Amino acid sequence: MVSYRVxxxxxxxxxxxxGAGSSIxxxxxxxxxxxxxxxxxxxxxxxxxxxxxxxxxxxxxxLALVYEPAVLDDGVFIGPAVVLTNDRRPRAxxxxxxxxxxxxxxxxxxxxxxxxSVGARxxxxxxxxxxxxxxxxxxxxxTADVPDxxxxxxxxxxxxxWVGRTGDRLVERAQGRWCCPTTAETFLEVHGVLSPxx
Length: 198
Description:
This protein has no helices and 26 strands. The chain folds into 2 domains: 5-92 and 105-163, Hexapeptide repeat proteins (UDP N-Acetylglucosamine Acyltransferase, domain 1); 165-198, no CATH class. 0% of the residues lie in helices and 35% in strands. It is mainly β. It is globular, with a radius of gyration of 18 Å.
């Protein structure tokens, strides 16, 4: 018995692994060897490249492009028309004019850690890591690693604040001490690194 949903117009390679409770919507494509965890949502027209690894409860919105060898941990949100690239120096041809073949390049990936969100139309230029619970603002171009809980924006993206697990912007209560206005969870910033204040 199939425990996931695939739209009739979607293309899912038989070698892909789809977790229970996941949904793959119209015109989406999931390539060979891709692994989707449980309760994932792959939106209309989204692309999941060969061998991409996706955790549980991940949402990939309409028209997003997730190129191999990307890794998306549990609870990641990828907004509409986001692009996760895989080639730092893209070329269609070699210096001698011959068509580049798969063996002529080495793919590099984007790793999005637990709970992080990448806003609509953002581009993440591999290789980069988006930290846990971080948030990339819509339209940003990410060219460097994003720290845990960071809110980044712009082109190239740079940190403009901190966010908590709810996505709300944190408020600084004292030097280096931050608080979520929704949950009251507190965080400590040391040398540009934010972590929960346990």
